[in-house]
Predict the 3D structure of the following.
Amino acid sequence: MKKMLCLLCTALAALNTGCSSPGSAPDLCREPPAADFTQMFGALDALPEAWDDGTRDLRSTDLRSADLSGELDALLLSDFDSQTLWPDTLPDGFDPAAVMEQGKNPGLGVRALHEKGITGKGVGIAIIDQTLLTGHQEYADRLRCYREYGPVSSRAGAQMHGAAVASIAAGKTVGVAPDALLYFFACDGSSEDGEPDLTLRAQTVDEIIALNSTLPAGEKIRVISMSRGWMPDTRGAAEMQAAVKRAQEAGIAFVYVADNDPLLPFMGSGRLPLADPEAPSSVRPGMFWEPYLFEEDAQDYSGQLLIPMDRRATASPTGEQDYVFYNNGGMSWAVPYVAGLYALACQAQPGITFELFVQALQETSRPATLERDGKTYSFGKTIDPAAMIERVSVS
């Protein structure tokens, strides 16, 4: 505990000096080295066993001796990265480079908004997550601040989660808001006994609020993204809820994994392998929750706003120019996407509130349905980022 408090005080003292301005060197407390995943599987002469969802983890795996000629379906449901070594011959229909490039696309017309100058420029996004590969080409030029809190500081290397969420929110090619400024806070959400504990993260929220009060116009943090949720009995939940309220009162939106928050009616969506991420017709239920849609007592999914989540490519922690393709994303990938969308809305309409942003998304979304066994299932509403921007721009 003494070590945790010491590290926290050191981080807070550094934070109070303020973060760097655009054009100057980023204010980094540390630069975690790149991760090395090559020992996860090493060299294999066949594909590893699939997880329950059908995904196979091929990240940083040497498959040069494997015969994959009959493995098209398995490969299309696999995770892999820039360090994966492939055999000379792959099945027709699987091009790792093409799959990776398609996965980088945030989809649903977001890149068309970028071409029109709606990029999140002048808007700050704060992320609370795991350790970050600070020098990755996706976001390094706009990383204004990197701080570590608590025992996370003792972990030497960059972790996969941090690079992913940072690039989804604000990556140059992967991100929803490629010109947004990034303020990143690495902080554990567990106590020393391994149990979930949000106390330190709640304190981090308060420090973000304090930092924001010192930032000039054009660099202000408008949204905090934290890819985590909590239950009422989670340790530190009351402190976190109070900190979230203080952030909102200070004009900073807070996006997290929420079950019953009317301000966060979001659910992650999926798409079939190789389906066009730009096409609304490609939107599917997310992999982790699709099976529940067909249960007799299934909840009503029709009102939720669908956020791209599965089959995304993100920055990889293995190198500053490396990328990784994730077959099954999870809500962790939907949260920073929403934060990036809000940054676009803040650029288009600086006076917007998060409530009006969500309202605009709801009013411009389209019902999403699918057919199965002769029955139509409504599974939410597909967002239309361009229509949302048009709506908030005239409000």
